[in-house]
Amino acid sequence: MNAPHRLLLALPAICFALLFQDPTSAEDDQLNVVVILSDDQAWTDYSFMGHPQIETPNLDRLAKESLTFTRGYSPVSLCRPSLATIISGLYPHQHGIVGNDPPWAGMEDGKRRPAHNEPAYVKARMDYLQHVDQLDCQPELLAPHGYRSLQTGKWWEGKPARAGFTDAMTHGDFTRNGRHGDEGLKVGREGMQVIDDFLADTQDKKQPFYLWYAPFLPHTPHNPPERLLAKYRDKTDSLPMAKYWAMCEWFDETCGELLGLLDKHSLAENTLVVYVTDNGWINETAASRYAPRSKRSPNEGGTRTPIMYRLPGVIEPRMDTTHLASTIDVVPTVQHLLGFEVPEGLPGIDVLDADELELRDAVYGEIFEHDIQSMDDPSPSLRYRWVIQGDYKLIDPSSRMTGQSPELYNVVKDPHENQNLADQKPEMVEALQSLLDEWYSPDSA
C-alpha cells in the first residue's frame, strides 16, 4: 500500500490564519480555488494514465504537480447529476438531481419528450430546480468569506446564481436554448478571455475567487481543430476515434491555457487546482457516440476518473495508485483546506487528511435513468447501485433492470471488468450487497 501522503508544514499555519479571518472580508492570504472538469473522457485517456496515442502534456504536468488519485470515481456516470455532486458534495439520491431531463406528461404512456423550448418542458425544468435551490453549493459556502465565483461551461441548474455564483457565462434561460450551459459552452472552444478578465478583475479588487471551468470538451460534437485531427488521423483508421483523441488533446490545450493564466496573474502559488471528470466515455470505432459499459453505465469506463489536487508548497505531489477517492470529496476537502466550516451530513472525506483516507472502507455510486421518472423521488429512476471495497467492485441492478444479476469484479487485476466473479464468490457478493443496503436501500433496489 502506498504510504499516506503528507501535507507540508505550511498547511497548519495557512489554515490557522484562515480560521480567524473576518468572514465578510477578503484578505490577501486567502487561497483561491479552480475546479477543472472534463466532460465525457475515459479514465485511461491521458498520457500519464498510459494511453498509447492520446497526448495530454498539460494535464501530465498537472498530475505531476498534484496529489493525483488514479483510483478516483464519480458516483454517477451522467453529466447533470455528476456536476450537482461535485458542487454540493452529496450523492444524487441525496441532492435529488438524478438525471438530465425531468418527467413530462405522458412519459409513462410512451409519449416523446417535448422539445427543449416547449412550454411543457420549460415548466418541468423550472419545477425541478427545487432541488438545487435546497442545496448549500460550494460558491454559497465561500460567499460569506468574501469570495467571487465564476461559472463557465456546462451548467444545468438554471441561472448559476441559484448555486451562489456571483459571475457567470451561462444565462440559464430555458426559453433561449438554456438547457445545459448556453453561452457558457463557448469557453475553451472559443477562447479563455472571460477567465482572463475575471482573474484580472478579482486581483485588481483583491478578492479571492472560486472558478468553475467545465468546458464542453471533449464532449460531442467531436469537431477538433484540423491540425489536431490530422495528427491523429495518422494514428488510426477510424475517423471517429481520431476525432475523439484529438478532442482530448484540444481539451488538454485549454487546460494549459488556464494554468498559464494563473501564472500570468501570479496566482499559481496561492490557488488550489482540483481536477475531475463528470463521467467516462469509450468511443465507438464506427461513430462519434459512446459504447456500452462507458457513459451512463456503472462500469469503470463510466465512473472512474483521475482526481487531482494541486497547491504548491502545501500539498505534496505524488501519484496515489492505492487509495480510493470520489468526487463527493471535493467540497469537504476544499472547505477543510481553506479553514472553513464543512456542512453537516456530507458523505465525503478530506482526502488531504491521511488518517481519513486510510480509514475509508469503500466508495459508492448509483446509476439512474437519463430521463427522470419522478419529480421528487429518486428511487423510480434507479438502474444500478455499485460499491468498491478494496480490490473488488459489486454492480447491483435494481428491480427495474429485469433479468440482470449482480456482477463482481476484481478491478485491480481486471480494470476493464472482463471476468465476472459473482458465481465464484457468492459470500463476497452478499457482504457487498449488505454494504450497499446500509448506504442506500430504496424500495426499487
UniProtKB/TrEMBL annotation:
It comes from the Bacteria. Residues 32-339 form the Sulfatase N-terminal domain. GO terms for molecular function: arylsulfatase activity; metal ion binding. Its cofactor is Ca(2+). It holds the Pfam family Sulfatase. Gene3D superfamilies: 3.30.1120.10, Alkaline Phosphatase, subunit A. Residues 1-26 form the signal peptide. The keyword Hydrolase applies. Keywords: Calcium, Hydrolase, Metal-binding, Signal. Belongs to the sulfatase family. This is Sulfatase. The lineage of its organism: Bacteria, Pseudomonadati, Planctomycetota, Planctomycetia, Pirellulales.
